[in-house]
Design a protein that fits this description.
By secondary structure, the protein is of the alpha+beta class. It is built from eleven helices and 63 strands. The strands form 16 sheets. The protein has a six-stranded antiparallel sheet, covered by helices on one side. Strand 21 and strand 22 form a beta hairpin. The radius of gyration is 31 Å and the shape is elongated. The two termini are 51 Å apart.
């Protein structure tokens, strides 16, 4: 639509989009002025009710003439496209400015919003969706209320009909009044409640009601009193506290009855603001959260007079400040920068990973895995109970928006975001392999995927590649980006397949150049105002960073010990917020073992002593196993073998490059594995006796990992990482020609392919349905395909006679499916066998099937895997 002329308006650029319209900046070619056009979205064009509401917005707003209400110029219907012509407001939304406003500026904005609402209420118009996104702050400081798409008239005699039926809920979660949430009829007092929420957020930087999902949020709004603002910001004027809490009364009859009265009270506070509001000690130290009993007393009641409310609130604040002064004076004298440390235990029977502190320092997000399910959890630092976020199943590596409102995470082949004010996660874009992300104030998200780092707008769209692998330097991955304060430059980690060193670089969104900053074991994080944190042998180090030169400029020193570390990901589990809060996960135990289990889940033995083990493959005769083992000291990954009859562990490869994905040849005479010494993963083989040197099987190019060999020894199945299509399945002939070709290649991720024992079928996983499922496809070009799992599955394995398939379900249960393969392929019902304790259901090669499906050798943790709390440090010594 950009560049088109509709009627006499030339479209210049898109300004924004909401539930009831898309807004464009346009040029009025008749009057030579800039305007804004709001169009009804195309997918709503067939709804007469939405069209009528669109007209209602224009009429309701056009009925208002006030400097704090956006002016409506015209409404038109051009070739079936209905649009409103509005005054163009050159400025920012209040949402964009919250967090940067002083108390004085917030009061000024509050007065203007109240004046604009008062004008609307005087004409009988109720907005019903007052929130920061619907308030524009012009460059000259004037505020204007936007978007009367949800407006309704109080007056039954109005010419504008009320479109929303009785009992419906209209508004935005977090800002709705109790009567809106309960579907009751609303009047102007509902706007006053929403306005109170906006005021509370402007003055404190947080919402008064903070349920972790929409249902919990609605419950708080209806049933839980908002804490006084002074419990969040101790220097809040008691009179201001009383005004806002009066707006937030649950019962409309007990609430302030006129927004004009709120405007008058705010002006009085503004006049009296010359008095000192709090002592320096009160401003510097957090006031302990008041108990419910004290809050109940401090909460203004409508039966009290205004003066009593002000006196009582002032006394509570002064008493809290005096208490802090008495208890905290000695600590202040000992250290100007107060520091505190405490632990957050994991939710019951879960493992914590991926910790991330919100930029405002109020919340910690983390992923926790338990009972086969991984979710994002939220824990307020001022509370004791973490809460899971519904809809975040299979999430990994969460990170925050700058305003602490959204959490982004990777799940099911997507980069997603979830609004903490409520609602379900929203997909931003597709991702094949997401290893970390960062979000700047401009709304850009930088994330890792195959081939480098990519940039996408947080509203969603097509990612644009920002960094590119240095192939001559044998780089294999770019990951773990961390923005600097300017929101343009960022740190990121480049991994090379020739070693396990993580090289941190400084780059920017504006060009493709980069410069090296440091070498470490894992990711590096910028810690405001001027430090970089990085990991060295599970010790978190800090060093001063010269923002102007883009270099380290101090002496590194330790600030935390025993920080969680995942060598295979080059990931240290820590984060730091601009509010001075450090979080560090304890990490999982690296000790794991391969244990034998029966079909009933009974553990009947172990294959070898504990170690840092990952992939496993069983020899054709069942007497030996090949495994991937990582040395915790050197972080070197090699292939080892286990003599299962004697529990004897022997090293098989000795190259410093990463080596994993072992499989056995059909006759057991060779072991194939992936080696990264050539810059990308390529397949090598070596005699299973261990004597001799490895030889190359595949040529250089895309990373190729072996997954299986046909029983006739002719074909090798490969998992290939294509930068364009992600993970695909290829087939290669094992002969002198070495011919290879794609077998299944699509825009989806296809993983873990395995030949059936007779070589006629290939089982694999694909996320084409939105989550990993197990499929079987004929190996011939003319055969069909069948879905095996019905509710998620990964790591498929055949029984030795081909009559049964096994896979791991999302809840980590080992599933068994009877198979009848003839002219066609018949799939039985999946039956759970027992609960495993593998890393996650989509981890590669964590178990093998033995004795024709009667025994299983499974990679499980040793000891108490759940003992990994998060350590939170307030104001660490950087």
């Amino acid at each position: 639509m950009i560049g088109q002329t509709i009627s006499h308006y030339k479209i210049l650029e898109k300004l924004g989009e909401g539930g009831m319209g898309v807004v464009y900046k346009a040029e009025d070619t008749k009057l030579d002025r800039t305007v804004a056009l709001k169009f009804l979205p195309a997918h709503l064009a067939s709804s007469e009710q939405d069209k009528a509401r669109f007209v209602q917005e224009a009429k309701a707003a056009a009925a208002l003439t006030h400097p704090n209400v956006c002016s409506i110029i015209d409404i038109q219907d051009h070739d079936g496209q209905m649009f409103i012509v509005m005054e163009f407001v050159d400025g920012q939304t209040l949402r964009e400015k919250i967090g940067t406003l002083s108390v004085k500026q917030s009061i000024d904005i509050g007065i203007q919003i109240a004046d604009g609402l008062a004008a609307a209420h005087q004409k009988g118009i109720v907005h019903r969706d007052i929130k920061p996104e619907n308030i524009m702050v012009r460059k000259d400081g004037i505020c204007q209320i936007m978007d009367f798409g949800l407006a309704k008239l109080r007056s039954a005699s109005s010419k504008i009909n009320r479109l929303t039926r009785e009992g419906s809920t209209v508004g935005t979660a977090g800002y709705m009044s109790p009567e809106q949430i309960q579907g009751q009829d609303v009047d102007h007092r509902s706007d006053i409640f929403s306005f109170g929420v906006v005021l509370y957020e402007m003055f404190t930087g947080q919402l008064p009601f903070r349920g972790v999902h929409e249902t919990a949020l609605a419950y708080e709004i209806v049933n839980v009193d908002a804490a006084p603002m002074s419990t969040v910001k101790p220097d809040i004027d008691p009179g201001l506290d009383a005004i806002v809490l009066d707006c937030l009364e649950k019962d409309p009859r007990e609430r302030c009855q006129s927004v004009a009265e709120v405007a008058r009270d705010l002006r009085r506070i503004k006049r009296e603001s010359t008095r000192q509001r709090a002592s320096r000690i009160t401003a510097a130290l957090p006031v302990p959260v008041l108990s419910k009993d004290v809050q109940a007393v401090a909460k203004p009641s409508s039966s009290w007079g205004k003066e009593r409310i002000l006196w009582l609130t002032a006394l509570v604040v002064l008493a809290a400040a005096l208490l802090v002064k008495i208890l905290g004076t000695r600590e202040i004298e000992r250290s100007p920068g107060l520091s505190a440390r405490f632990s957050i235990p994991p939710p019951e029977k879960t493992i914590i990973e991926g910790t991330s502190v919100s930029p405002d320092g109020k919340l910690v997000a983390f992923t926790a895995t338990g009972e086969g399910q991984t979710l994002v959890w939220i824990r307020p630092l001022s509370g004791l109970t973490p809460q899971p976020l519904s809809g975040t199943e299979n999430a990994s590596f969460p990170f925050w928006s700058v305003d602490s409102r959204y959490i982004a995470f990777f799940a099911d082949g997507k980069l997603k975001k979830i609004d903490l004010a409520g609602g379900s996660p929203i997909a931003i874009c597709d991702v094949s392999e997401g290893y970390g992300g960062a979000w700047n104030a401009a709304g850009d998200i930088l994330f890792s995927d195959v081939g480098g780092l990519f940039r996408v707008v947080s509203a969603g769209g097509i990612p644009k590649q920002v960094t590119f692998l240095d192939i001559p330097a044998k780089e294999s991955s770019h990951r773990w980006p961390s923005f600097l304060p300017d929101g343009n430059r960022f740190l990121f980690v480049a991994l090379r397949v020739t070693d396990e060193v993580a090289m941190t670089y400084l780059a920017s969104l504006s060009d493709t150049s980069r410069k090296s900053v440091l070498k470490s074991d894992a990711n590096a994080v910028f810690a405001p105002p001027s430090n970089v944190l990085f990991l060295n042998n599970r010790t978190l180090m800090s060093d001063h960073f010269d923002l102007k030169k883009g270099t380290l400029a101090g002496e590194p020193h330790p600030i935390a010990m025993n920080v969680g570390y995942v060598p295979r990901l080059a990931l240290g589990d820590f984060s730091f917020s601009a509010a001075g809060i450090l979080s560090a996960g304890g990490g999982r135990s690296v000790n794991r073992e391969y244990a034998w289990f029966t079909r009933s889940g009974q553990k009947i033995g172990v294959a070898c002593q504990p170690g840092n083990y990952f992939d496993i493959a069983l020899s054709p005769n069942g007497e030996r196993a090949a495994i991937q083992r990582v040395d915790v000291q050197t972080n070197n990954s090699d292939i080892w073998t286990i003599d299962l009859t004697r529990s004897l562990l022997s090293r098989f490869t000795f190259d410093p490059a990463v080596e994993d994905y072992p499989i056995w040849s059909a006759d057991g005479g060779s072991i194939y594995f992936a080696s990264a010494k050539e810059g990308t993963y390529n397949v090598q083989r070596k005699p299973s006796t261990g004597v001799g040197s490895p030889e190359d099987v595949t040529s250089t190019g895309f990373s190729r990992m072996p997954t299986d060999i046909s029983t006739d020894g002719k074909y090798l199945l490969l998992q290939v990482l294509d930068p364009k299509t992600g993970s695909d399945i290829w087939v290669q002939r094992i002969d002198s020609a070495g011919e290879s070709r794609p077998f299944i290649a699509s825009e989806f991720s296809e993983d873990f392919p395995r030949f059936s024992p007779d070589g006629r079928w290939v089982v694999y996983t694909s996320n084409e349905s939105g989550k990993d499922e197990v499929y079987v496809q004929s190996f011939s070009a003319t055969g069909g395909r069948w879905q095996v799992s019905t509710n998620g599955g990964s790591q498929p394995r055949w029984r030795q006679d081909g009559g049964e398939l096994f896979y791991i379900a999302p809840d980590l249960k080992l599933m068994a499916v009877q198979i009848k393969a003839g002219v066609t392929f018949d799939v039985g019902l999946a039956q759970p066998l027992f609960l495993t304790r593998i890393d996650s259901y989509d981890s590669p090669n964590r178990y093998v099937v033995a004795e024709n499906g009667q025994k299983f050798l499974i990679n499980i943790p040793v000891g108490n895997e759940f003992a990994n709390p998060i350590t939170v440090t307030i104001n660490p010594d950087l």
